[in-house]
Design brief:
Radius of gyration: 19 Å
Structural class: mainly alpha
Strand content: 5-15%
Oligomer: single chain
Strand order of the largest sheet: 1-2-3
Helix content: 55-70%
Distance between the termini: 43 Å
Length: 180
Protein backbone atom coordinates (compact mmCIF):
# COMPACT_ATOMS: atom_id res chain seq x y z
CA UNK A 1 0.00 0.00 0.00
CA UNK A 2 2.88 2.39 0.68
CA UNK A 3 4.14 1.81 -2.86
CA UNK A 4 0.68 2.50 -4.31
CA UNK A 5 0.45 5.70 -2.25
CA UNK A 6 3.87 6.93 -3.34
CA UNK A 7 3.39 6.01 -6.99
CA UNK A 8 -0.04 7.65 -7.03
CA UNK A 9 1.38 10.82 -5.55
CA UNK A 10 4.30 10.86 -8.00
CA UNK A 11 2.02 10.36 -11.00
CA UNK A 12 -0.31 13.12 -9.84
CA UNK A 13 2.18 15.68 -8.55
CA UNK A 14 5.25 15.16 -10.70
CA UNK A 15 3.68 14.03 -13.97
CA UNK A 16 0.35 15.82 -13.71
CA UNK A 17 -1.64 12.63 -14.29
CA UNK A 18 -4.29 13.24 -11.65
CA UNK A 19 -6.59 10.47 -12.88
CA UNK A 20 -3.89 7.79 -12.71
CA UNK A 21 -2.77 9.11 -9.32
CA UNK A 22 -6.35 9.01 -8.05
CA UNK A 23 -6.78 5.37 -9.12
CA UNK A 24 -3.60 4.25 -7.35
CA UNK A 25 -4.40 6.19 -4.18
CA UNK A 26 -7.92 4.76 -4.15
CA UNK A 27 -6.45 1.26 -4.61
CA UNK A 28 -4.16 1.85 -1.62
CA UNK A 29 -7.20 2.85 0.45
CA UNK A 30 -9.16 -0.18 -0.77
CA UNK A 31 -6.38 -2.35 0.65
CA UNK A 32 -5.86 -0.30 3.82
CA UNK A 33 -8.87 1.98 4.56
CA UNK A 34 -7.14 3.59 7.58
CA UNK A 35 -4.01 4.57 5.63
CA UNK A 36 -4.01 8.30 6.46
CA UNK A 37 -1.23 9.31 4.04
CA UNK A 38 -3.10 7.85 1.06
CA UNK A 39 -6.35 9.45 2.21
CA UNK A 40 -4.67 12.83 2.57
CA UNK A 41 -2.99 12.54 -0.81
CA UNK A 42 -6.30 11.57 -2.38
CA UNK A 43 -7.82 14.71 -0.87
CA UNK A 44 -5.05 16.74 -2.49
CA UNK A 45 -5.78 15.10 -5.87
CA UNK A 46 -9.49 15.92 -5.47
CA UNK A 47 -8.59 19.54 -4.79
CA UNK A 48 -6.36 19.69 -7.86
CA UNK A 49 -9.19 18.22 -9.92
CA UNK A 50 -11.51 20.99 -8.72
CA UNK A 51 -13.50 18.62 -6.53
CA UNK A 52 -13.20 21.00 -3.59
CA UNK A 53 -16.12 19.71 -1.52
CA UNK A 54 -14.82 16.12 -1.72
CA UNK A 55 -11.30 17.26 -0.86
CA UNK A 56 -12.46 19.25 2.16
CA UNK A 57 -14.68 16.40 3.36
CA UNK A 58 -11.70 14.05 3.22
CA UNK A 59 -9.36 16.52 4.95
CA UNK A 60 -11.90 17.31 7.67
CA UNK A 61 -12.45 13.60 8.41
CA UNK A 62 -8.71 13.00 8.62
CA UNK A 63 -8.11 16.02 10.84
CA UNK A 64 -10.95 14.94 13.15
CA UNK A 65 -9.02 11.70 13.72
CA UNK A 66 -5.50 13.19 13.57
CA UNK A 67 -5.64 16.87 14.60
CA UNK A 68 -1.84 17.15 14.63
CA UNK A 69 -1.49 16.04 10.99
CA UNK A 70 0.14 19.23 9.76
CA UNK A 71 0.66 17.97 6.22
CA UNK A 72 -3.08 17.36 5.78
CA UNK A 73 -3.85 20.74 7.33
CA UNK A 74 -1.45 22.35 4.86
CA UNK A 75 -3.07 20.57 1.92
CA UNK A 76 -6.45 21.77 3.19
CA UNK A 77 -4.99 25.29 3.30
CA UNK A 78 -3.95 25.10 -0.36
CA UNK A 79 -7.38 23.81 -1.35
CA UNK A 80 -9.14 26.58 0.57
CA UNK A 81 -6.87 29.29 -0.84
CA UNK A 82 -7.33 28.06 -4.40
CA UNK A 83 -11.10 28.00 -3.97
CA UNK A 84 -11.23 31.53 -2.52
CA UNK A 85 -11.86 30.66 1.13
CA UNK A 86 -9.04 32.89 2.31
CA UNK A 87 -9.99 33.02 6.01
CA UNK A 88 -9.80 29.23 6.39
CA UNK A 89 -6.89 28.93 3.98
CA UNK A 90 -4.62 31.42 5.73
CA UNK A 91 -5.57 30.00 9.14
CA UNK A 92 -4.59 26.48 8.03
CA UNK A 93 -1.50 27.79 6.23
CA UNK A 94 0.08 28.32 9.64
CA UNK A 95 0.58 24.53 9.68
CA UNK A 96 3.59 25.08 7.42
CA UNK A 97 5.59 26.02 10.54
CA UNK A 98 4.88 22.64 12.17
CA UNK A 99 5.25 20.53 9.04
CA UNK A 100 7.95 17.86 9.22
CA UNK A 101 9.14 19.17 5.85
CA UNK A 102 9.62 22.71 7.18
CA UNK A 103 13.04 24.02 8.03
CA UNK A 104 12.40 25.92 11.24
CA UNK A 105 14.12 29.25 11.74
CA UNK A 106 15.12 30.22 15.23
CA UNK A 107 14.15 33.85 15.63
CA UNK A 108 15.01 35.72 18.85
CA UNK A 109 11.73 37.65 18.89
CA UNK A 110 8.00 36.87 18.77
CA UNK A 111 6.00 36.51 15.60
CA UNK A 112 3.43 39.11 14.70
CA UNK A 113 -0.21 38.17 15.08
CA UNK A 114 -2.81 39.62 12.76
CA UNK A 115 -4.55 42.67 14.14
CA UNK A 116 -1.65 43.66 16.42
CA UNK A 117 -0.92 47.37 16.73
CA UNK A 118 2.01 48.16 14.47
CA UNK A 119 2.55 51.88 14.94
CA UNK A 120 6.10 52.49 16.09
CA UNK A 121 7.05 48.81 15.85
CA UNK A 122 9.71 47.21 13.69
CA UNK A 123 8.41 44.32 11.59
CA UNK A 124 10.62 41.74 9.88
CA UNK A 125 8.93 40.34 6.78
CA UNK A 126 10.48 36.97 5.98
CA UNK A 127 10.92 35.44 2.54
CA UNK A 128 9.69 31.92 3.01
CA UNK A 129 8.33 31.11 -0.45
CA UNK A 130 9.63 31.40 -4.00
CA UNK A 131 10.32 34.43 -6.18
CA UNK A 132 6.79 34.73 -7.52
CA UNK A 133 5.28 34.72 -4.04
CA UNK A 134 7.78 37.30 -2.85
CA UNK A 135 6.90 39.58 -5.76
CA UNK A 136 3.18 39.09 -5.18
CA UNK A 137 3.22 39.63 -1.41
CA UNK A 138 5.62 42.58 -1.42
CA UNK A 139 2.53 44.58 -2.34
CA UNK A 140 1.57 44.29 1.35
CA UNK A 141 4.60 46.33 2.48
CA UNK A 142 2.70 49.57 1.80
CA UNK A 143 -0.08 48.38 4.12
CA UNK A 144 2.42 47.77 6.92
CA UNK A 145 4.14 51.12 6.56
CA UNK A 146 0.76 52.88 6.34
CA UNK A 147 -0.06 51.38 9.74
CA UNK A 148 3.10 52.95 11.17
CA UNK A 149 5.45 49.96 11.09
CA UNK A 150 9.11 50.24 10.27
CA UNK A 151 9.80 47.31 7.93
CA UNK A 152 12.78 45.11 7.34
CA UNK A 153 12.11 43.09 4.20
CA UNK A 154 13.99 39.85 3.68
CA UNK A 155 13.96 38.64 0.09
CA UNK A 156 15.85 36.57 -2.42
CA UNK A 157 19.07 38.41 -3.22
CA UNK A 158 18.01 38.63 -6.87
CA UNK A 159 15.09 40.85 -5.82
CA UNK A 160 16.90 43.04 -3.27
CA UNK A 161 17.83 45.87 -5.67
CA UNK A 162 14.35 46.06 -7.15
CA UNK A 163 12.71 46.09 -3.71
CA UNK A 164 15.14 48.72 -2.38
CA UNK A 165 14.25 51.00 -5.29
CA UNK A 166 10.53 50.27 -4.89
CA UNK A 167 10.41 50.87 -1.12
CA UNK A 168 12.98 53.55 -0.23
CA UNK A 169 11.89 53.75 3.43
CA UNK A 170 12.22 50.00 3.96
CA UNK A 171 15.42 48.18 4.91
CA UNK A 172 16.03 45.41 2.36
CA UNK A 173 19.07 43.34 3.38
CA UNK A 174 18.37 40.48 0.95
CA UNK A 175 18.47 36.98 2.41
CA UNK A 176 19.20 36.89 6.14
CA UNK A 177 20.96 34.04 7.94
CA UNK A 178 18.61 31.38 9.30
CA UNK A 179 19.44 32.29 12.89
CA UNK A 180 19.00 36.09 12.41
Amino acid sequence: TAALNLLGLILAREFGDLDAGEKLLQRALDLAPEYADAASNLGWVYGEQGRVAEALTRFDALLAQHPEDHETRLMRAYTCLKSGDFAAGWRDFEARHASPLAVPRKLPFPGCQGGAALSGRRVLVLAEQGLGDQIMFVSCIGDLTARGATCVLECDNRLAGLFRRSFPGVAVPGRLPDDV
